[in-house]
Amino acid sequence: MSKSQRLLSLDVLRGLTVAGMILVNNGYGESFEMLRHAAWNGMTPCDLVFPFFLFIVGISCYLSMSKNNFTPTAPVLRRVIKRTILLFAIGLFINWFDNAIEGDLLCFGHLRIWAVMQRIALCYFFVSMFALYANHRYTIPTIIVLLAAYTLVILLGNGYAEDASTNILAQTDLQLFGYDHLYHKSPVDPEGLLGTISGVAHVLIGFYCGKLIKQKDTIGDKALAVFAVGTVCVIAGYLLTYGLPLNKRIWSPSYVLVTCGLAALLQALLIKREASPNAVKHSSAMETVFRVFGVNALALYVASELLAILFGHFGISAVIYDVLHSIIVWDKWASLAYALTFVAINYAIGYVLWKKKIFIKL
Predict the structure, then answer these.
(1) What gap in Å lies between CA 132 and CA 247, rounded to an integer?
(2) Separation CA 49–CA 33 (nearest Å)
(3) Terminus of the chain with fewer CB atoms < 10 Å: N or C?
(4) pLDDT tens digits for 114-165?
(5) Which pTM value belongs to this model?
(6) Beta carbons within 8 Å of 107's beta carbon, 6+ residues apart
């Protein structure tokens, strides 16, 4: 598989994931249960999108760092630090903008610290440091140690309790950052500090798959190796659910393994599809859509978050939903139609960037 083909298959997976993130984040009114996050234990299709993206971050990290032979030169370190700060700052900006547009410009006393971009930033930083300074033969042992350590944290610290007053994850964030800076729609901030431990393990699984994709010689070997990782992770993850239920809110070890496994299986299938000599020539329209999302993934995600805030503030969401609901009388289907319309709006933005060959790297 050529370099361009490999990146194309990754772009398709990345684009599918970002389009999914935008879809599930922007239902209006009463959404289908499958498009809502599990309230606590369990997993819905909605709970796959963010972990898929973190898995992709790991693959991208390996492929990117390999260009410099994982040498921690000053320019490489500056790039890692700059990107980490940028991602974290953008996450804070989104949280600030949500308050500022309502007139609360000086919301710093109750600005939420954590969110999706901040989780990505921290995981990217720690995995980048591992990539540059650690022996990669210890990738799997490091994943095991991190997940084992996090298991001890949540088992000994009542991590599965839906009670912020006794849950160690909630209490850690509360003591370090204060109640006003946390997420209040769940007993635990789903992107809180301690969850970063399993988040790093999550990205390292993607990193390991990136290593396999890079080092295996044939397309069949690449796809088979990633497929094998996916199979092992899914089986191990579901076996763990007997003692450690799937839980996105706390980013449980079982959740890490199952979601990484499913992402790896899908990536393997996409790699196999890219093996066809005519794969690019005969790519489907849907694959083209996902490529548009994939080449500007984080930029379009950020744009969708800001656009959703603007639509809500100015009543645009309500107007669009009311028009759709006048045609589609069923509430849940109207909500889905609104979410798909919102995805299409963001696709239009991405298509313009794609046609102009503008690729925004955050």
Answers:
(1) 31
(2) 15
(3) C
(4) 999 999 999 999 999 999 999 999 999 999 999 999 999 999 999 999 999 9
(5) 0.94
(6) 96, 99, 100
